[in-house]
Sequence to fold (314 residues):
Amino acid sequence: MRKVYYLDRSIHGFLFSLTLFSCESKLEGKVPLRHKGKFPTKEPLWLCYALDMEKLVKLEPLYKLLRLLLWTGQLTDERASSAIIVAPASGGKTSSFEHVQCGQSLLLGDLTARSMKDILSEKHKNVTHLLLGDMLAMFGHKKATVDLTKQIVAKLTGEVLTNDPWSGESIEPRSLGLITAIPDKDFPRYQKEIDKGGFGSRFLIAKFSYGDKTKAEVHDHIMRNGYANGRPEAPFTMNNPGKKKVVLPLPVARKVKELGIDIARDPLGYRAHRQLRALVKASARSKNKGTASNSDFEAVEELRNFFVGDGKQL
Fold:
């Protein structure tokens, strides 16, 4: 028995949001299911289903980044990469997480040390990434709770957790990536807390905003009732998941090094360099290649504007 998610639609600001309703259903391979509720389509729905938002909000570049981040969890010699998405409120951050949710990720509404106990349990052994739709939820608890949560997350994302945080008993070594989001107006206010103790250096900071042309297109789409008439698309799924080694040839590695220095948020930039290496390898891994090529570097270089200055304008 596995969870199947059905989706409803609602307007959220100038975008629409996805509302998830779960039910228990048995899946055989990739056999499609049909929703029997009020969802206005006869198209099949799948596990981790998401609506096509690209025409509405031009989020495909963000989807590409998120998919590569998830693929870093399928590498034997790299840590699963982590990222904080910084963008306007109602800008589609959480909806983009729903779009890439799959068997290797766990979508969360909150994150505390207590919830970590379930996350680290055997039933989530294949999960390599946590998707926290709103980072403010993690900071909305008492200071002691926040500090303990950050301590565990720092261990999971930057090192390897080898002991149960509550009992101290030895556990199977575990590491996870965390992908989360925060509104651009709140990021400066919480940046000191994020960076404290080197916690923030574990994350790629990816920023984006909407240009006037895209805003106008979104409003036009809403005016034409496009948010209610769009067609669903197949979900993101990993083909042939499993941890494998990917070789990064020296000529490609040199280009990654320069890009890592370029986007670094701290004087050293070592972690940014490592994160980018993982992304380039992840591009190759997603194509089931054992060696990364220049095209894999270019796939990551295309995302450069997310990591510098005020971010990528969609």
